[in-house]
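Handout, section B. The chain below has 418 residues.
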Amino acid sequence: MSFKNLVKDIKDMKDNFGSISRRTFDVKFSHCSSKGRSHTAVSNVSTPDDLDDVSERSCWANLPPELLRDVLQRVESAEGSWPDRKAVVACSSVCRTWREITKELVKTPQESGKLTFPISLKQPGPRDGQMQCFIKRDRANSTYYLYLGLSPTMTMDNSKFLLAARRVRKATSTDYLISLNADDMSRGSNNYIGKLRSNFLGTKFTIHDTQAPVDGTPLSVSRACKRISSKQVSPRVPACNYNIAQISYELNVLGTRGPRRLQCTLHSIPASCMELGASAPTPTEFTNCTEDSIVTLSNSKSTSEFSSVSSEIASEVSFNKNVSPLVLKNKAPRWHEQLQCWCLNFKGRVTVASVKNFQLVAALEAGPTLPQSELDKVILQFGKIGKDSFTMDYRYPLSAFQAFTICLSSFDTKLACE
């Protein structure tokens, strides 16, 4: 059997297993006008136990380990971009043995510059070069969609859906709920992975993550656990929101012309990760605090009992004051006399002037282990290219989730900053 036929058989096998999602297998979702297009995030590698039992008895599970590793290595290296990278996901869905080897072979975005599984969206981007994405805004439904690709002008088959966000306005704040599934953006869903919350003026934002920060990183106790009654507790619903970052926009009291000024403090990323040879915290799998920390309470237990459990969990979370968080600031634009406007070099990735456009760099001082060339690198840039189209390019140490939430803050109305 030729190598191409083998890959085709793997894809056919994946189709027979059914759809794959974050916990079951689902890469086939339709959304709005894009029929047949995947609108769930890059697929995970978890399978139901009964499916594993069936697949473990198949002939595919009995391949010699050396041959299997060689085959999977060829598939992983050959399928470097979406949609061809579906073959790698298909390999991980064959059986437990295939999944373990595939997970071992697939490198993090920091090392490979590729997004494969959903956890890749929580891992730092590549050190060399930027991960180029774009955001589509749906004004009617107050939703935002993040895609992997150069621009919306690409064919729908060559861009990959990553994340979706829905804006929820409240009396004193605005929430942006972020999900792995464009068709399911409710907070009680398994696809919910975090949120962005603004204050009343839209000048200060807090990024909340359902993923607990990696050990050794600073963490704010603020809103570590949301309090819910015992009737709402479910082992499948994320019950924790970790405060991982804060975004502040400078007030423009005098109403002077110019771009917005913002600063982002990332509590989950230490400033030392920018030094040469250092690495940023990198989660390897999704964690659910209801599975690790919160026991499911019976209906006989009261809300006060659950609140005490929640408080006990929050008390275990400490803020490491000895570790300085990474602070990002927007790169100062220059005034162009001929164009009579503020300008930044987006290297052709931004084509429409807007106060929403920005570039973020590290707010650190150069030193022996941190050369100025590293500080000059743009970690995140966001800009407008159409009425409801925007580009988002990020790199190490930000993840796709963190970059997306920072960009969402630029969409919010800021009367005190204009």
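Note. Confidence is low (pLDDT under 50) at residues 17-37, 44-48, 220-238, 290-319. Compare this with the example in section A.
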